[in-house]
Amino acid sequence: MPRRGCSPREGEHVPAIIRLHLLTPPGLRVYPARLHGAVCALLEPAWVRHRDQRKPFSTGPLSGDGNTAAWRLGWLADEPVELDVNEVAFGPLVCPVLRCDVEQILYAELAAGPPAWTADVDVISPLYFSRNGRDHPLPDPVLMLRSAVERWNAFAPAALQVADDIAQALLGGVWLASMSGATATTPVTATMHQTGFVGQARLALGRHAPPQVPEAFAALMRFADIAGLGAQTTHGFGAVRLAALGPSRPPRPAAPRPTGRRP
Questions:
Q1: How far is the CA of 17 from the CAs of 27, 67, 70, in angstroms?
Q2: Which pLDDT band holds residue 252 (cuts at 50, 70, 90)?
Q3: What is the mean pLDDT of the chain?
Q4: Which of 169, 180, 221, 222 has the lowest tally of Cβ within 10 angstroms?
Q5: Bridge partners, 197 (sequence order)
Q6: What DSSP string describes the chain?
Q7: What are the tens digits of pLDDT across the range 63-85?
Q8: Which pTM value belongs to this model?
Q9: Is the separation of the CB atoms in 177 and 204 below 8 Å?
Q10: Using one digit for the tens of pLDDT, what is the confidence trace for 166-223?
Q11: 107-246 CATH choice from 3.40.50.300, 3.40.50.880, 3.40.50.12780, 3.30.70.1900
Q12: CATH architecture designation of domain 4-104
């Protein structure tokens, strides 16, 4: 099979969404550990140590049926991604690459988009967070934003990083407006499992947030579509798709009704 390049245009930087279209055997099921091994073989640059906790890429699960599947990867570093591949190995199984597409989305473009007060997020693979040695398998809005801020500031150009005061305002003002879904358990290996949330969540900002906060919120939610959220995003966990950004302030949450009899 001829080798197909999958690199961005010369001189341009990233992030980027990489979509690999693979020829697969019917009923293929790839464990997250093998997703991680495959994406590291494709995208792990020499300047990253394999055991580093924060890597400049993410991966979603394979999707598709029959004998083809799509694999969506995210590249996060402000450096060109170099990828020239004609097959992908998931452990002992080797899948030919039918097509490779790259969609570049520069940090400056993410930061320059319109502000938003709400974000509708589809969580397509189990999302969870690690808190004090325990797993937290819920779409916690503060943990979701903290995850996005940390990943953005790790790889974005210095001039575009989220300042501490804006980050604190984001974390102090975001709330979970609605959610629909359930926890799902996924095998990590043949003997280990991981539980996380899968479904939809709407995040919203407080009505009195200063102008820089909805701007940063919108940029981070666009970035989460590439980077994922939560723990083990290089294993296929926490893959999210941004369904919509809301340009209007959300309605004020209803005040709790008093209980008990009046004196």
A1: 25, 23, 12
A2: low
A3: 87
A4: 180
A5: 127, 183
A6: ---EE-PPPTT----EEEEEEEE--TT----HHHHHHHHHHHH--TTS-TT-SS-SEEE---B--TTEEEEEEEE-SSS----EESEEEETTEEEEEEEEEEEE--HHHHHHSPP-SEEEEEEEEEE-EEETTEEE-S--HHHHHHHHHHHHHHHS-GGGSPPHHHHHHHHHHEEEEEEEEEEEEEESSSS-EEEEEEEEEEEEE-TT--THHHHHHHHHHHHHHHH--SS-TTTTTT-EEEEEEE-SPPPPPPPPPP-S---
A7: 987 789 999 999 998 777 777 78
A8: 0.88
A9: yes
A10: 999 999 999 999 999 999 998 877 678 899 999 999 999 988 888 899 999 999 999 9
A11: 3.30.70.1900
A12: 2-Layer Sandwich (3.30)
Residues of the chain with CATH 3.30.70.1900: 107-246
* Structure-token match 């358990």, residue found: 185
